[in-house]
Amino acid sequence: xxxxxxxxxxxxxxxxxxxxxxxxxxxxxxxxxxxxxxxxxxxxxxxxxxxxxxxxxxxxxxxxxxxxxxxxxxxxxxxxxxxxxxxxxxxxxxxxxxxxxxxxxxxxxxxxxxxxxxxxxxxxxxxxxxxxxxxxxxxxxxxxxxxxxxxxxxxxxxxxxxxxxxxxxxxxxxxxxxxxxxxxxxxxxxxxxxxxxxxxxxxxxxxxxx
Length: 210
Known about the structure:
The chain is α/β, with parallel strands linked by helices. About 45% of the residues lie in helices and about 25% in strands.
């Protein structure tokens, strides 16, 4: 269990799965640059959070729900939590996270959503089997089942994120195609720094040879 002083932002898990260096730049070095993509995402989230509470028959909708988990050491906010009425009259939470783009090849968005569910489970003492990701580019919802595999990945990611932030160290860059979509491309300089390291390693090998 973590103390309230040791909680980290829930969104950091998404950043770590996407790129550990990005996570450190944001959450260790406090570096952030707004691009057109991040501005669109911020505006989307703000619009969602500005909505008021809704009721639709057997469903209640809450916006901008505060979240916390002392077990995983997380704090944050859910874009939307739908509460579905069950046959026994109780309400089952169903978290929905809004994303600007489209579904990703890795599990970074799913881990973030699962972490939200874990927070709700701890706060409300209820088991949450599933949630959804809404992507602005495709205008579709992707249902996500919180199975044991995803839950283990989420818990492991939370541990790794705590370790990274506590270390105070920023990993070296490793350029990949997805770097081009990162708002911190100019601050990270993955191509430039990686090239410098490659040249340095080459010269070290050459000068070290007889």
